[in-house]
Amino acid sequence: MSNLIFDYDGTIHNSMLTYAPAFRDTMKWLSDNGYIAEKEYTDSEISCWLGFNSTDMWNSFHPELDPEIREKARLMLGKNMAERVDRGEGALYEGAEEVLLKLKNSGNTLIFLSNCRFHYLERHKRVFRLDRFFDYFYCCEAFDFIPKYEIFRKIAPNHKGSFTIIGDRFHDIETAVRNGLTSIGCAYGFGSREELSQSDIIVNNIKEIPDAVKQFAT
User: Which of 55, 60, 102, 190 is the most exposed place for a label (fewest CB within 10 A)?
Assistant: First the structure.
């Protein structure tokens, strides 16, 4: 069987349920205090940042902000999301639990690799009991926020066998391409079709992943 490296947000977790309202609350705080112009953000304008680590997101989104204000906004958005997850507002995609259990029970090793921070990982492990599915957990904060394709090179020696990358953003497909790995692009997530164009297989629903994985085994 294979090592299946899963992205999390937009691949397993429907992040927009908590990210979108937290993002809008944070932008309102910034505009109310005169740091940015007031603006209504569409879901697509918000979701495009999902998959980035939070430091890269803020450095690109509003680089003109004073670093202290950027950091305050980053922490505020993260705290807002955390509170929403703890209140039960977050959710995995429908069918995610069944898919992950099916893949695990088929003998695959499931590996979590996300551009998230420790506190985010630990909260989601607790709330969604991710230990039921994943054998190993890696987050970018543990590797000083280097790109995913570089993180893979550091963790690969810890695992025997082949690897398949499964994710919804260019960070995931880039990891596969740069390391000569097979990949499954998740078009139901937050990336564009163009981002996923170099995937070996593209799925439109999380429930299609087990059949896609089987294609690499034949």
Answer: 60
**Residue 130 corresponds to which tokens in the numbers above?**
């991710």
Tell me the mean pLDDT in the region 128-142. 97
Band of pLDDT at residue 61, cut at 50, 70 and 90: confident
- Convert the pLDDT of each residue in 5-59 to its tens digit: 999 999 999 999 999 999 999 999 999 999 999 999 999 999 988 888 888 888 8
* Angle ∠(122,82,185) on CA atoms, nearest 5: 70
Pairing of strands 3-6, 163-167: parallel
Structure token pair of residue 86? 């703890």
User: Token pair of 45, please?
Assistant: 């304008």
CATH 3.40.50.720 holds for 3-14+91-217: no
Distances (CA, A) of 34 to 29, 30, 69, 80, 176: 9, 6, 11, 20, 42
Residues 24 and 55: beta-carbon distance below 8 Å: no
What burial class does residue 193 get, using C-beta atoms within 10 Å of its C-beta: 0-12 exposed, 13-18 middle, 19+ buried? exposed
183, β-bridge pairs: 165
Q: Which phi and psi (to 5°) does residue 184 adopt?
A: -125, 120
Pairing outcome for strands 163-167 and 136-139: unpaired
Domain boundaries in the chain? 3-14+91-217, 16-86
This prediction has a pTM of: 0.91
Mean pLDDT of the region 185-207: 96
